[in-house]
Amino acid sequence: MIWITIGLMAAIVFISCYLFLEPKLPLKLNKHSLQFLSYAAPAVLTAIIAPLVLVKEQALYLSIDNNYLVGAIIACLLAYFTRNTLLTVVVSMGIFFFVL
């Protein structure tokens, strides 16, 4: 039963991705749908990163001693001011590993 559930979930994910990625299919989204979908990646990344940065031992950990929080703030500021993804990733990783 578990393998059937896993197979069905994989098929659903594959079909839903295939509909948007296959250029031969006549599926076109309007401007509002495309704008709505542009928020999906930041929302997913925020949902993944926020618990790692803000939670320690099942409690909210907002302190200057939280290296993850300091690194995340530095990375956000770098991304905002430089608008360069590669520079943001390299510099924020270097600061996190060597300074914090």
What do you see in this structure?
The structure is a single chain. The longest helix has 20 residues, at 2-21. This protein is mainly alpha-helical and 100 residues long. The protein has helices at residues 2-21, 31-37, 40-54, 67-82, 85-99, and strands at residues 55-56, 59-60. Helix 4 (67-82) packs antiparallel against helix 5 (85-99). A two-stranded antiparallel sheet has the order 1-2. It is extended, with a radius of gyration of 19 Å.
Question: What topology does this entry show?
Answer:
Blueprint: H1 2-21, H2 31-37, H3 40-54, E1 55-56, E2 59-60, H4 67-82, H5 85-99
Antiparallel strand pairs: 1-2
Helix pairs in contact: 4-5
What is the approximate shape?
extended
Sheet-strand content, in percent, reads under 5%
Weakly predicted, low-confidence segments:
none
**Number of helix segments?**
5
Structural category is mainly alpha
What quaternary form is this?
A: single chain
Q: Tell me roughly what share of residues is in helical segments.
A: over 70%
Largest sheet: 2 strands, antiparallel
Q: What is the radius of gyration computed over CA atoms, rounded to a whole number of angstroms?
A: 19 Å
Mean pLDDT reading: 89
Question: Could you tell me how far the N terminus lies from the C terminus, measured between alpha carbons in angstroms?
Answer: 47 Å
SSE order, one letter for each helix or strand: HHHEEHH
Total number of strands: 2
- Read across the widest sheet, the strand sequence of neighbours is 1-2
